[in-house]
Amino acid sequence: MKYALLDRGDPLSRELKEQFKAQAKARGFVYDEEAPESVVSIGGDGTMLQAFHRYKDQLESVAFIGIHTGHLGFYADWQKNELTELLDLMATTEPRNIHYPLLHVEIDTTEGTEAHLVLNEFTLKSADGTLVSAIHINDEPFEMFRGDGIVISTPTGSTGYNKSLGGAVIHPSLEALQIAEIASINNRVYRTLGSSVILPKHHHCDIVPPDLEEELIIGVDHLLMAKSGVRSIMCRVAEKKVTFSRYRPFTFWNRVREAFIGSV
After folding, report:
1. Helix or strand or coil: residue 220?
2. Is 138 annotated as a binding residue?
3. Residue 169 DSSP symbol
4. Got the DSSP string for 76-137?
5. CA atoms within 13 A on the CB side of 171
6. What are the catalytic residues (predicted)?
7. Per-residue burial over 43-55, b = 16 or more CB atoms within 10 Å of its CB, e = otherwise
C-alpha cells in the first residue's frame, strides 16, 4: 500500500506521525506523497480539510482516513491510542469505501471563471458589512438577500457552521446542498425566506451581487479569499465524490449524538 500523511503540526500529531510511519514501514507500506492510495490525516477536522484540498485532483485514486488527536471529529474514525489496531486492519483487511458528495462552486468574475471543490462549506460575506445579493434557484429568481452572509454546505458540512445557523443536519449519503442565511434582515421592506433551503442533485443556485465594485470575502472550507468584480457564483452538487476508507462500522447518527448531545 502506498500512503501519505498530513499532521496538524502540534507536538502530539507529529509524534503520532512518526509512530505511524515506523509501524507502516514494518508492515511493508510505502510512503508516497505524490501518488498515494490512502491519505491519513492526523489532527482534527481542519487537518482533514487540508488533506482533501491537497489531493482534490486525485479523488478518483485516493481514499482518506482520519486519526483525531483531540475529541472525536466527524471526519476521523480513529483515536490517538488506536494506531496499531488501524495499521493491523490496513495490512490485513479490505476496507469498506464510503463515497460522500461534494459541492461544486463556479465564481464568474470580470477576470474569468474559476471552479472550486468544497468538502465542508462555502461562505460569502461582504468586506463592507451587509451583504446584498440576489439568489436564483434553477435560473428562477428566489429572493434578494440582505444580511451578514450566506453559507452553502455539503451534507458532511451540515454539522458545522450551517448547524450553528439553525440549518438541518443531513446524512452524508444524501446528494444535496444546503443554503443557510447569516443574520438576514427581515422587515416590511426587506424579506427573505428566513430558513435554510435544501437542494437535491441536478439543482443549482446562483448568487448575483448587484455591485461589481464590491469586495466580497469568499470562504472555500478553511481557505479565505477577497474578490471584487464578481458577476455571479453558481453552486451545485459536484459530479466527483470524496472517498473515506472504513475499517470498522461508522454510525453517523451516533457521531452526531456524541458531538452535540452526549450520553442518553
Report:
1. strand
2. no
3. P
4. --EETT-HHHHHHHHHH---EEEEEEEEEEEEEETTEEEEEEESSEEEEEETTB-EEEEEEE
5. 8
6. 45 (proton acceptor)
7. bbbebbbbbbbeb
114 is in an annotated binding site: no
In whole angstroms, give the CA distance from residue 228 to residue 231.
Answer: 9
Question: What pLDDT, on a 0 to 100 scale, did the predictor assign at position 259?
Answer: 84
| 215/97 Cα distance (integer angstroms) | 41
Q: Give the separation between CA 76 and CA 68, rounded to whole angstroms.
A: 6
Q: What average pLDDT values come out for the chain (264 residues) when binned by 10 residues?
A: 95 95 97 97 94 97 93 81 95 95 98 97 95 97 96 96 96 97 91 94 96 95 96 98 93 88 78
What was the pLDDT predicted at 70? Answer: 75
109: left (phi over 0), alpha (psi -120 to 50) or beta: beta
d(CA 9, CA 149): 31
CA 47-162-212 angle, to 5 degrees, is 95
Give the H/E segment covering residue 164. Answer: helix 161-164
Q: Is 127 marked as binding a ligand?
A: no
Q: CB atoms < 10 A from the CB of 232, how many? A: 16
Give the separation between CA 80 and CA 78, rounded to whole angstroms: 7
Cell 438576514 locates to 184
The pLDDT assigned to 72 comes to: 61
Which residues are known to be catalytic? 45
